Amino acid sequence: MNSQKTIFAIITSLSVSLALAEDFKTVKGKEYKDATITRVEPDGIVLKTKSGITKLYFTELPKEVQERFHYGSATLLRRQLERRSLNASVAKALSIGLRNKSKKSSTSENRYYRGNTHPARQSRW
Questions:
Q1: Rounded average pLDDT over 3-9
Q2: Which domain holds residue 110?
Q3: Residue 66 shares a structural domain with residue 109
Q4: Among candidate residues 31, 60, 30, 28, the one with its CA nearest the CA of residue 43
Q5: pTM: predicted TM-score of the whole model, two decimal places
């Protein structure tokens, strides 16, 4: 009984993966046959084909495909703005942290080497 359920699950998963395979054609004419969409991102879709994994940007796809995945909608713009503001705040925090770290390291280094010779300035002979 258990093995029948396992076999049934395998067969259904294979048929579902075959049913989800689609053909995509870019604006420039490049075709992707039997491609499975693995991920939808704000700027494009990631496809898995026999030859490998490819990311197609929405700007490379026809308008019908762009509309299907809601490219250019207000939610996309909001997500991009949120991501940019988050990146800007992280960059600012990192730059402040690095400035503080460089000030501390230079003062502590000077304190240590006041009476001693700095390793870079030591003579090797």
A1: 67
A2: 73-114
A3: no
A4: 60
A5: 0.46
